[in-house]
Design goal:
Elements: H1 2-8, H2 15-41, H3 61-78, H4 89-99, H5 101-119, H6 126-147
Helix pairs in contact: 3-5, 3-6, 4-5, 5-6
């Protein structure tokens, strides 16, 4: 009650200002709700699907691991998983564990391989590239089962 008395004595406080703030708040809320509804309304069948028969065109095992990770992320996005550009590989892995638990283990292994290939200086072996490809195959197979 004291705050209202103090505010009513200031020249900036008025009912028209309250009405303006209320209208602006309602407008912002309506905008956010419509945006969320519009994003949810696009059925997965209309979203572009990646080519699940994509071949790797890597010159080295390091590039192959990085390509597998990129293909896995695009495949997950095509199944409806949202991956903001600001997400780190660990964030993507955590989100996948919550939203797509069937592929979480494969993506976790692929994420570890990707982080080694992308951010370390030691050599990446052909065996590690094959492991990355196996993980991507598991994610791709799961995506096919979602679409069919």
């Amino acid at each position: 009650m004291q705050i209202q008395n103090v505010l009513s004595n200031t020249p900036y406080y008025s009912t028209s200002a309250n009405a303006l703030v209320l209208l602006a708040s309602l407008g912002a809320l309506a905008f956010v709700l419509l945006k969320m509804r519009r994003d949810r309304s696009t059925p997965p069948s209309l979203q572009p699907r990646p080519s699940l028969s994509a071949e790797l065109f890597a010159d080295s095992p390091r590039e192959a691991v990085i390509q597998c990770y990129g293909l896995a992320c695009r495949t997950l996005q095509a199944t409806g998983l949202r991956i903001p550009e600001s997400d780190t590989p660990f964030d993507i892995c955590s989100r996948t564990q919550l939203m797509r638990p069937r592929v979480a283990d494969s993506l976790r292994k692929l994420t570890v391989l990707f982080e080694e290939a992308k951010f370390s200086l030691h050599a990446i072996t052909q065996r590690e590239a094959e492991e990355a490809n196996e993980c991507w195959d598991a994610i791709r197979s799961n995506a096919r089962s979602i679409w069919e």
